[in-house]
């Protein structure tokens, strides 16, 4: 988890590759398969509906029934998605995920995003994504806390190498 530009994609792909995890990025899947109308919502910095996203993740999970471990980038992003995910844990479909939060300031990511230049990296879309993160995604942290699910904070203001190392250190500490 983390705000746009926090490095979820870079770090997620890297970690998945190193640890032979199946990498599932809802954003990547959508950029390839979303309808015209969905692409427009994404380009404007909006979020897609929970129902659409949950159906998509459900379908991906059905295709990966025997996977030992997978890494989700960009999911869950709302309370409804989080509730659904924890329901899947309760139903025995997967073990409790480890939630990592790539923590970085909005000022820092603004600089990064304007350099990245994806079609949803315009100043207006970035502001919209910040707004939605605060309103829709941020409440997940309190929800997980109240369900005794830990969220591990990673300092994502560091260099990519340092962030990667912090993630590895964090996962090793959890294992011990
Ligand atoms: P990302 O690549 O994670 O930055 O996602 C790009 C865009 O895809 C987001 O700004 C949303 O429009 C959409 N998206 C990706 N994942 C989700 C999700 N879990 N819930 C709603 N919208 C999503």
Identify every distinct bound molecule in the structure, by name, code or SMILES: adenosine monophosphate
As a whole number of angstroms, the C-alpha radius of gyration is 16 Å
Strand proportion: 5-15%
- Poorly predicted tracts of residues: none
Mean pLDDT: 95
Report the helical percentage: 55-70%
How would you summarize what this structure contains?
This protein has 176 residues and is mainly alpha-helical. The protein is built from 9 helices and 4 strands; from the N terminus they run αβαααβαβαααβα.
Describe the structure.
- The chain is built from 9 helices and 4 strands.
- It is mostly helical and 176 residues long.
- Helix 1 (8-18) crosses helix 9.
- The mean pLDDT is 95.
- Bound molecules: adenosine monophosphate (AMP).
- Adenosine monophosphate binds at residues 4, 26-27, 30, 42, 46-48, 53, 74-75, 77, 81, 120, 129.
- Adenosine monophosphate binds next to helix 2.
Describe this protein with a few key phrases.
two-stranded parallel ribbon; two-stranded parallel sheet; binds adenosine monophosphate; globular
SSE arrangement:
Elements: H1 8-18, E1 22-25, H2 26-33, H3 36-43, H4 50-63, E2 70-73, H5 79-90, E3 99-103, H6 106-116, H7 123-137, H8 139-146, E4 151-155, H9 160-175
Parallel strand pairs: 1-2, 3-4
Helix pairs in contact: 1-9
Bound molecules: adenosine monophosphate.
